[in-house]
Design goal:
Layout: H1 19-37, H2 43-57, E1 63-70, E2 73-80, E3 87-89, H3 93-101, E4 105-107, E5 128-135, E6 141-149, H4 157-171
Antiparallel strand pairs: 1-2, 1-6, 2-3, 4-5, 5-6
Helix pairs in contact: 1-2, 1-4
């Protein structure tokens, strides 16, 4: 199957938010996540719920999901959106770089990156991206959280602050 630039019928195009609306949307999402995950310990259930609620509250989330650390590489986990890459090597693409460096990656224009090495184009509609490493309570990398937008420049320090916070509360660090 080859990637197409045509927007799938079941996916809404991204809508960026001004700063104040973005903060309010994240605050509402964080409350919903906390309420729904209270007492939950299963990491896969947490991931699926986080995906759903963030995609619901943040209208510029085009693709949202987790890549799990498995057998020395990243493997697609719970996600919402178009087809994701099945496996990603550490250091390859934005997700692999986030895993290797263990730090958040903010990319305002994914098409400005070298395709195949700095960026893996699973969906040509993706224009910007943020990837947050996810650690357990012991500080071990267990996943990366990946969000794509169909608009350039969707992600900034506000997204980073809230997403790092959500991942820390949900998974232990």
């Amino acid at each position: 199957m080859s990637a197409s630039a045509e927007m799938p019928y079941f996916i809404r195009p991204s809508v960026n938010l001004p700063e104040g609306e973005k903060i309010a949307a994240y605050e509402a999402a964080v409350q919903a996540i906390a309420a729904n995950l209270e007492g939950e310990t299963d990491p896969i259930l947490k991931m699926a719920t986080i995906n759903c609620l963030l995609k619901t509250y943040l209208p510029y989330y085009y693709w949202v999901g987790f890549y799990l650390v498995r057998d020395g590489r990243l493997s697609v986990g719970p996600y919402q959106g178009t087809l994701g890459c099945l496996h990603i090597a550490f250091g390859r693409g934005v997700c692999g770089r986030a895993a290797q460096e263990r730090r958040t990656q903010l990319v305002p224009d994914v098409h400005a990156l070298a395709q195949g090495s700095e960026h893996i184009a699973c969906d040509p509609n993706s224009q910007s991206e943020i990837v947050v490493p996810v650690f357990d309570a012991s500080g071990h990398l267990i996943a990366v959280f990946d969000v794509d937008s169909s608009l350039p420049g969707s992600f900034d320090e506000i997204d980073q602050q809230f997403l790092v916070g959500v991942m820390g509360v949900a998974f232990g660090r």
